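Dear colleague,

Thank you for sharing your sequence with our group. We've completed the structure prediction you requested, and as agreed, I am returning the results in plain text so they can be pasted directly into your records. Please verify that the sequence below matches your submission; if there's any discrepancy, let me know and we will rerun it promptly.
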Amino acid sequence: MPHLAAGVLLVVLCVGSAVWWTTSTQDRVPVLALAKPAPLGHVLTPADLRSIDVSAAPGVALVPADRAASVLGRPMATSLGTGALLTPDAVGTAAIPEVGRAVVGVVVKPGQAPPELAAGSPVTVVVTAATAAGASATGQAPGTSWRAKVVGVAPSGTDQSTVVSLDLDTTGASQLAQVPAGQLALVIQPAGGER
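Please find the predicted structure tokens below.
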């Protein structure tokens, strides 16, 4: 008798699990996700995309996997990492820079920026050293700083340095562009601070 009761209980649990699994997977739909990081401006290729099944709430805008052709060959409007779900707004014309702002690239070497630096990080860019000719060469003395937002991070390809694209006001971007490589440090700031 105890074995019979245990057997019936096991059958009920298996049937219940199968019903739950079937109903939970029926709500899943195949959508596009990134197979590798895609920085701002990167033109999407089939190798950049993969299909994954997700269960999304109503109103969440995702790109269905069967609409991959609508995004292939188009540039990224923002920077996204591996595994990020692709939305219609993530592809197309970049929304930066805004009027009165500019994007400038700076080269940082290991130790001049935190390894956690990523697109969207608010940062303070600090001049760390004067040029051999002194601060007058660029007009920026050590300790001069600017608030910016990281747009993208990419290896320079020539050494261990990294190119960081920063969004900041046009005046600050012009000043920052004059500071030689290797004389800057980036400090991540709390989110929600001023740009």
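Summary note from our side: The two ends are 73 Å apart (CA to CA).

Kind regards,
the structure core
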